[in-house]
Recover the amino acids of this structure.
């Protein structure tokens, strides 16, 4: 493995460790920061990142982990994918262990609850921003809009049909997407 690959993998490790350690709100809150960092570092442009994000969403697992692995692979191959995946997973692991023990006595404190509600509101805004970016990129033909709309209505009416509605929507979108 070349020295350049190791340097790029270590750089990716540092970037994703920083993102994971300093971003509150979970995976979807990290996505805009990841997009900004990849663009700032010249690793990929916004359009390429959004394509990669679409792939990351289709893979089972946490979105931040999947996205970090895909970006790491693009930047430094398999080594970059491994380093990026480890980096994105380390801070939440240690944070959960630490916070679970420390926060338990304070969960009924009004200030702690207010802080957590504020973080929740910020995350909702960040996720909505990512969703809007993905929706803007779609080519919304009438048939595609009807399929998605009917799927949403069916899910709101009956959550027990989740798998059927999801599978049917995917099949219909794929069949008529060509």
């Amino acid at each position: 493995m070349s020295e350049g690959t190791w340097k790029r993998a270590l750089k990716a490790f540092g970037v994703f460790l920083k993102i994971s350690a300093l971003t509150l709100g979970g995976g979807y809150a990290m996505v805009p920061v990841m997009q900004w960092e990849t663009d700032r570092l010249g690793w990929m442009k916004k359009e390429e990142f959004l394509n990669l994000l679409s792939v990351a969403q289709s893979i089972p697992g946490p979105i931040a982990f999947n996205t970090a692995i895909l970006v790491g692979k693009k930047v430094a191959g398999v080594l970059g994918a491994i380093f990026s995946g480890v980096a994105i997973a380390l801070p939440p692991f240690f944070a959960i262990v630490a916070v679970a023990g420390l926060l338990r006595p304070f969960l009924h404190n009004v200030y702690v609850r207010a802080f957590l509600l504020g973080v929740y509101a910020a995350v909702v805004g960040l996720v909505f921003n990512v969703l809007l970016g993905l929706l803007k990129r779609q080519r919304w033909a009438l048939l595609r809009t009807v399929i998605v709309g009917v799927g949403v209505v069916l899910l709101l009416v009956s959550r027990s049909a989740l798998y059927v509605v999801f599978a049917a929507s995917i099949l219909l979108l794929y069949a008529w997407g060509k």
In short: Helices lie at 3-22, 27-40, 46-58, 63-103, 110-137, 142-157, 162-176. DSSP finds seven helices and no strands in the chain. The mean pLDDT is 86.
